[in-house]
Amino acid sequence: MPSLTRQRGFTLVEMAIVLVIIGLLLGGILKGQELITSARVRNIADQNSGVQAAYYGFIDRYRQVPGDWSATNAAKAIPGVTHGGDSSGRLDGDGWTEGLALWEQLSKSGFIQGNYTGGTKAPTQDDVNLAPRNAFNGFLMLFSSSDYYDSSSSPSEKLNLVLGSGIPVNVVAELDRKIDDGLPQTGVVRQGLTSGGTFGRISQSQANCVDEGSTPPIWDIAKNEQNCNAVYLY
Predict the structure, then answer these.
(1) Is the pLDDT score of 6 beyond 70?
(2) If you placed Cys at 84, which of 71, 151, 184, 231 could pair as Cys (CB 3.0 to 4.6 Å)?
(3) What is the pTM of this model?
């Protein structure tokens, strides 16, 4: 008579324990991703607040617009300044001179951290002293323009801070929800242009970041675009 071998599988209790452990692990991963996203959103929001405070603080102290102030006159009040603008009373977006002089004048006057040197050409990834960067290595630029999407076809020219390229769509969408209305074409947080931006790729976003077919248009999380850009209107 052949011997019977007894096969033993997982009990329901053991399977339940395994499923609970898997659930905890997945929950921890998702929670970790949520915390990372929140930290990145907070970093961008803090950068924006810092730049805004520095910009208006500079005007309050010197009665001049940083970056627009001529290099000759700015150097008399701020040692080491070598770049400036035409003293027209506004930050012009035509070329790099005033946009980069802004960071030099703000840093050398102590309003922002860093030692920015000013310049006249587009910064590259090797340039560490021309403009600050966001958490995704994209450059920040502050200037007057209509380089943003709007519910109307012809937005007005406004002073705005380019938050920097390379921002994942879920991060910029969360930022918009936290500090504005959550929509890319209204409020103070807007999507940057997808082409024809004053500062080219540095100030532009990708079309996949927004679902234009929705009414109103919304940030398109489903497409998971990793190279979005937005502006904050002052």
Answers:
(1) no
(2) 71
(3) 0.83
Note the maximum CA span of the chain. 107
Peptide bond preceding 216: is omega within 30 degrees of 0, i.e. cis?
yes
pLDDT, residue 21, reads 73
End-of-domain residue from the set 132, 157, 190 = 132
Identity of the amino acid at 61: R
What DSSP designation does 22 have? H
Q: Same structural domain for residues 128 and 138?
A: no
Contact by Cβ (8 Å): 216, 185: yes
SS3 state at 52: helix
DSSP 205: -
Same-domain pairing of 139 and 194: yes
Do the domain assignments include residue 144?
Answer: yes
Residues 163-202 pLDDT 10s: 999 999 999 999 999 999 999 999 999 999 999 988 999 9
Residue 84's domain comprises: 64-132
Which of 106, 132, 158 delimits the end of a domain? 132
DSSP 72-124: HHHHHHSTT-------SSS---SSSHHHHHHHHHHHHTTSSSS-----SS---
pLDDT of residue 80: 96
List 148's β-bridge partners, or say none.
192
> Going along 73-157, which residue ranges are E strands?
141-145
pLDDT at 1 exceeding the cut of 80: no
Task: Please give the angle made by the CA atoms of 207, 209 and 213, to the nearest 5 degrees.
Answer: 75
| Rounded Cα–Cα distance for residues 22 and 159 (Å) | 50
If asked whether residues 25 and 139 sit together in one domain, one would say yes
pLDDT at site 15: 67
How many other CB atoms are there within 10 angstroms of residue 176's CB atom?
Answer: 24
